[in-house]
Each structure stands twice: as C-alpha cells, then as structure tokens.
Design goal:
768 residues, 24% strand, 6-stranded mixed beta sheet, alpha+beta, globular, Aldehyde Oxidoreductase, domain 4, single chain, binds dioxothiomolybdenum(VI) ion
Length: 768
C-alpha cells in the first residue's frame, strides 16, 4: 500500500495527534472475529421467519390468490396478502420539509393494493416458525393476474424521454452560449453516443430486518444508511409516534446507496411482526435484493466536443437519458461533472428521463457521475486522439480557473497537481501514444487516464460529547458505519479537539435513540458529523474552562478561552510552558462527575428549525462556491489479442479530497471505489427481459462483480490540502474514486487495441 505522507494542515486543532494517522478501525476486531452482530443475527424468543412472494408480471392486477398449499406447510403461522393485510398508511407525499418523505423507495402501499407495478413486487409474505417452512410455503402461493401492458424496454423508450425538471441544488439543464453552433463551426470535433446498462446493489450483507413489537412500541434491527428515515417512515406507515420506534444498526455489511431508501422488505417484516404478534426476521435472498431493492439507471448519453487545432474547447455538449420507475426513483446527476470539468466557450448539458414499469432506480455510489464521467472522459480521450494530442495535455489546456458556466469560484481544485503526481507515479512518460504500439509478449498493453469528479455534501448532524471525571469521552451521534470507518474517524477528531488520547474516546452510533445523525450518503457523513463535533467540543472546553476560571485554586483562573489550548488531557495556557490542569482535576474540584455539550435539537420544532437553518446555509454556500472532490485515474490494461480478454494490470489514482482524517480507511474507501469502477467497466450489467421487465441475472453467479483475481495492486494517494470551506478541510472520500474509473479503462483498452467501446461493460465480444 502506498500513500502520500500526511502533512500538518492549518485547519486542524493545534495539538492534533490523531487526525491523518492510519489508525485501525475500532470496529475491525468485532467484524473480523464474528463478534459483530448484524441485523439478521439478533436472537429473540419466539422469533418467526418471513419470506416474500414476488409478482410474476410486469404490470397488472391480482385476480386471485390461493394460499391453501402454503398454509398447509407445517410451521406456517400465516400468509399475508392484500386480502387479509391490515391497513397501513400510504407512503408520505414527498416534501422538503419532511425529510423522511424522501425515504420512500416507491409510492406503493404494499399488500394494501391489488395492483402490480413491477415484476418482482411483493404480493405476499409468509410467516413461519422456521426459515425453511417460510421459503417452502412462499413458493406454494398461487397468484393469478390480470396482466396489463408494461413499458419496460429502456432502449425502446428513448423517443419518449422528457427533459428533467431541475431544482436549486441540482439543475436539469445548463447552458452557456450556443454550443450546437460552436460545434458545427469547430475545426476539430467529435459527436458520440455512449450507453451504459442498469446496475444492481450487491453489498456483502443482503438486506435484512428483525422487527419486534411490544404493544405500540417497535424495535427494528436493520442495516441502514439512514436510521432516522427508517424510524420516521415506519412510524408513519404504522401510525405510531416516531419516538415509539427504535432502529438499531451498529453494523452494516456494506452499503453503497442501496440501504438509503425504505424498501418493501423492511415494511413487510414489521407488518408480519404486527400481524403475528411475534418478533419476525426477514432476510432477503440475493435474488430478493434484486427484486425489491432498486439499482442504478441505465443511460444513453451524447457527448459532443468541438475544439480549435490547439485543443482549446469551443463547445461541450453532454445530454443524457436515464430512467425512473412509474412508482418512484429520481434523476441521477449524469451530466453534473460536465458543468465543472472543462473551460469550454460554449456549454450545453441536459438530462432527460423516461418512466418505465420497473422498480424505482435508486442511489448507487456516485449516482450520475459514475456513468457520466465514463461518457465525458472517454469522449475527451477520443478528441485527444483526433487532435493527435496527449490526453493529459488536452485536459490541462482546458482546466478552468473558475466554474466554466458562471464564473463561480471553486472552493478547492487541484486537478493539475493530481495529474502531475499521477503521471509521475504511473510512469505516463513511458507510454508510446500510438494504439497497439505497446506489447509484453503476446499481451497488448494499453494505458489510459480519466478525471474523477464528485460534489461535496454536508448535512445537519446532532451530537453530544460528554467528558467524565476519569478523563474519558463519549461521543453520541446516530450516524452509520457501513465499514468506512466513521466511528474511528470521529474518535480521532474528538481526541485531537479535546487533547485526549484516542483510546479515551468512545463513539456511539447506529441507534435511533442517539441524537439524530446525518444519513450516510453523498460522501457527506464524515464532514457533517465533524462540523457538529468540532462545535460540541468547543462548547465543552468552554464549559470546563468556565469551571476552572471560577476557582481560586486553578492556574486557569481568569484566563480567556482564546488563550487556552486542549492538550495532554486537559486545558493549558497557550505555549509549550503554559500552565494549566487536567480535565480530571478541574471536574474534581468543581464536584462534577461529567460535563456535556450538545449540538442540535431533538424536538420536532427544534429539528425543523435546525433543518431550515442548515438548508439555507447550504444554499448560500452553493451560491458562492462550487464544491467538489476531484482526481486523476491512471490505468494499465493487458488485452489478449486472440480472446479479447481484458485484465487491469496497474492502477494509480491521485485524489484531491481535502484533509484526510484516517490514512488507512480513506485509502480503503478510494480503492473500493476503483474496484467498483472496474466492475462497471468490465463486467457488471443487470439484464432486464424487454418483454415483461423481469431481471434475468439476479445472482452473483450471473451478475459479475470483480473478485480479488480481477484486481491489481491499487496505488492511491491524495494531495491532503484542506478545503477551506469544509469542516476540518475534509471533503468526502466515498464516491469520487468510482468516477472516471470506467473511462480510464475504456481509454486504456483503446490504447491497447485501437478499438473504442462506447457501450458498457467492455466484454470480450466487443473486442473480437
Ligand atoms: Mo451513496 S450513493 O451516497 O450511498
């Protein structure tokens, strides 16, 4: 593993000892020894098991259901269908003032309707004393349908695409000048069409829910990316106050957006528990995840670039068509990077949508930019070929000083530095530009580059920090740990902010009884929690100092907050020789067992006010700055000239992600994104039957994610320059590295073979 040494950054707490270090994850041991308990592993006395019955038509009405055979299976407790399910409230209407409403994966009121909206929609749930009985019985439920015509074929729907309506944060369309006219007049141009397939979520841990009612109180164990949304949504559906619902989610076996929305399995597990009066576990099979959890949209994209002979872009056009479900899903920001990456004189970007009778699409690692950068960054490479110019040189010639569309300032932008360092680490200078000119024995060698780009996000986060008289600190925040190392990062930040050892800090997370945290999404969770955490630590230090200042016995008596620093487990006057005292001594003298500081409010009005405040600040911020992470991806492939087999043999990624909190977990995040990008480029594709919308490959045997043998050593590094507009200078690391990855591979494949593949994945047949 290689990574750049971390440097001391000006935005860090002065006595920082932990931020930046490659500290092992605090949850690592529990996860690797099997001690960690996931949501399908909670034992309850009398636990029953549930299994879903899926619709086998793309659209229609249920004409009849015969549960006789299913109900006769020994151990079956009940078969719940729309004929006998108690009423639930329909999903809440979407509103920005009710953030939980954004969590509705679909508009369907499952088992409260006879309508079928997608092939695979749950039309029944079997509850049994054993898992085997539930699964066996679910297969015996006979459902007949009045089938209705279903629109499921994305390729055939192209002509029906309509421009997406934008909003303040995410425009559907942007333009500068007349890009079409400039394209027509350009001395050199490309005008290209790219297509990408749907992708499905394949976290290691399939979705699972364990639900238990106690009167009108509900406990749910659920691997989730937004426990506050799960709580709010279930409270709404089942008509109980939100405080009656507790969502417990300390361990999540991977999640890349698929555990953000509320999917039917969660709701039906809770329903099953309510109907049977027993705790119920519903663990989806891998196929169940494909049938009931949305994935990434397919896309049709046009990228057209016009340039002068010197490579200066005169025109940049990027338009996309993606799909949403008739019952839900949202636009993915396929063109977002094209608004910011190149200083073209004329720009036109536009996103278009088609609605199909399929399960809603949903967020999946860098929704939008992951596939958008594939098209844009391949097209830039194609233009470089046409110009006879080095693709890095072409990019640097068009690197903007300010946001190309409107002249807004970049909060932070170090793409030049990323390319310079990447080229050196990768050995780009050794590349001979002619396609097919590099060989190693029989293997054709190709080298490609592409830019990575992902906007940075921040959300509201409530936290409390409590310092005890024994010098230990407890941070409480209902954030999410899907394996990225949040708990570790926040212990590092807290330790430095309070000047205590890392080991003295315990971070509590993954429980809706904790102060409401941000969702784990948009690569924004760490920055969001960090912002509130720093404020809370500051408040805490002031409270402790106030105790000391009042005391005649304290060396801090009368000292102002600005003259005090936190270090060595206490507060000291600034300067190495500054006098002060340990927290323990201050608290003991004041007769206090602990001091606590809080950020955010848990009351309904307080939370709403906080949300409004936060959103206004975010909008203001966005008016002033363009905020994002970026990076340079370098890839080497080897292509077998006879079989078309593509192996990725080397990778260098250099990222501009601001301050890195933990060098080990950040490196893993960045590597993980590249691995997912390799899957996107070479193997991943969901196959949808164009007749009725059935997903035909709902298993890891037929939907190919990369395995270890597909992945070379991945050299990731970062520039570690803080973003002055972000808390601690940190930008998220979760998503940026999947962007640009597929383009780097496609460009390397072209360099190796002279073949341009404009349709993902790049399988052997495309190169034969
Ligand atoms: Mo994500 S798609 O921000 O989990």
């Amino acid at each position: 593993m290689t990574q750049t040494q971390t440097q001391e950054s000006p935005a860090l707490p002065r006595a920082g000892r932990n931020v930046g270090k490659p500290i092992d994850r605090v949850d690592g041991k529990a996860k690797t020894t099997g001690a960690a308990r996931f949501s399908a592993e909670y034992p309850y006395p009398g636990l029953a098991h549930a299994a879903l019955v899926h619709a086998t038509v793309g659209r229609g009405r249920i004409a009849g259901i015969d549960v006789t055979a299913a109900a006769a299976v020994p151990g079956v407790l009940t078969v719940i269908t729309h004929l006998n399910a108690p009423p639930m409230k329909p999903p809440p209407p979407v509103s920005l003032l009710n953030l939980e409403s954004l969590a509705s994966a679909t508009t369907v009121n499952y088992l409260n309707t006879d309508e079928v909206h997608w092939h695979g929609q749950p039309v029944g749930v079997v509850v049994a004393a054993t898992l085997d009985a539930a699964v066996e019985a679910a297969a015996l439920v006979r459902v007949s349908y009045e089938e209705l015509p279903a629109r499921v074929d994305f390729a055939a729907a192209e002509g029906r695409a309509k421009p997406q309506k934008g909003n303040a944060l995410q425009p559907g369309e942007s333009r500068k000048g007349d890009a079409e006219a400039a394209l027509a007049a350009a001395p050199v141009s490309v005008d290209l069409r790219y297509t990408t397939p749907p992708h499905n979520h394949n976290a290691l841990e399939p979705h699972a829910t364990t639900a238990a009612w106690d009167g009108d109180r509900l406990t749910v164990h659920e691997g989730a990316q937004n426990i506050a949304w799960v709580r709010g949504h279930l409270a709404h559906k089942f008509g109980v106050p939100a405080q009656n619902v507790r969502v417990i989610s300390p361990y999540v076996g991977g999640a890349f957006g698929g555990k953000t929305m509320i999917w039917p399995g969660t709701i039906l597990a809770v329903l099953a528990a309510r109907v049977t009066g027993r705790p119920v576990r519903l663990a989806l099979t891998r196929e169940g995840v494909y049938r009931t959890v949305g994935g990434r949209t397919p896309s049709i994209q046009r990228v057209a670039l016009g340039a002068n002979e010197d490579g200066r872009l005169t025109s940049l056009i990027h338009t996309s068509i993606t799909r949403v479900g008739a019952v839900g899903g949202g636009p993915e920001q396929v063109t977002s990077q094209s608004r910011h990456l190149y200083d073209a004189e004329n720009i036109f970007v536009q996103q278009n949508l088609v609605k199909l009778d399929l399960l809603s699409n949903t967020v999946m690692r860098a929704p939008g930019e992951s596939i958008g950068t594939y098209a844009l960054e391949t097209a830039v490479d194609e233009l470089a070929s046409k110009l006879g110019m080095d693709p890095i040189e072409l990019r640097m010639r068009n690197e903007p000083e300010r946001n190309p569309l409107d002249g807004k300032r970049f909060a932070h932008r170090m793409l030049r530095e990323a390319y310079a360092r990447g080229a050196e680490r990768f050995g780009w200078a050794d590349r001979t530009p002619e396609p097919g000119s590099m060989r190693d024995g029989r293997w054709l060698i190709g080298m490609g580059v592409a830019s990575a780009y992902h906007p940075s996000w921040q959300f509201a986060a409530n936290v409390t920090v409590r310092l005890s008289a024994d010098g230990t600190v407890v941070v409480r925040c209902g954030f999410h740990e899907m394996g990225m190392g949040g708990a570790t990062a926040h212990a590092q930040i807290t330790a430095d902010a309070l000047g205590v050892p890392f080991e003295a800090v315990r971070v509590e997370y993954g429980d809706s009884d904790l102060p409401t945290g941000p969702g784990a999404g948009g690569s924004g969770q760490t920055a969001s929690v960090a912002a509130s955490l720093l404020t809370a630590c500051d408040k805490l230090k002031r409270s402790v100092l106030a105790l000391a200042r009042r005391s005649s016995g304290s060396p801090l008596r009368g000292v102002r907050p600005s003259g005090v620093e936190a270090r060595d487990g206490g507060l000291y006057q600034a300067g190495a020789a500054g006098r002060g005292e340990a927290y323990a001594a201050i608290l003991a003298r004041a007769g206090r067992t602990s001091v606590e500081a809080q950020v955010g409010s848990e009351t309904r009005m307080g939370a709403l006010a906080g949300q409004v405040r936060f959103m206004s600040k975010l909008m203001l911020d966005r008016r002033r700055w363009v905020k994002a992470a970026c990076g340079a991806q370098f890839c080497e492939v080897r292509v077998d000239p006879d079989t078309g087999e593509v192996r990725v043999s080397r990778w260098v990624g250099v990222f501009d992600v601001g301050t890195v909190i933990n060098a080990k977990t950040a490196a893993s995040q960045l590597r993980g994104g590249i691995v997912m990008g390799i899957g996107m480029a070479l193997s991943e594709a969901t196959l949808v039957d164009p007749r009725h919308g059935r997903i035909m490959n709902p298993s890891l045997a037929e939907y190919h994610v990369p395995v270890h043998a597909d992945i070379p050593p991945i050299d990731v590094s970062w520039l570690n320059e803080p973003d002055p507009t972000m808390p601690l200078g940190l930008i998220g690391v979760g998503e940026v590295s999947i962007t640009g990855a597929a383009a780097a591979i496609a460009n390397a494949v072209h360099h190796a073979t002279g073949r341009r593949v404009r349709d993902l994945p790049i399988t052997l047949d495309a190169l034969m």
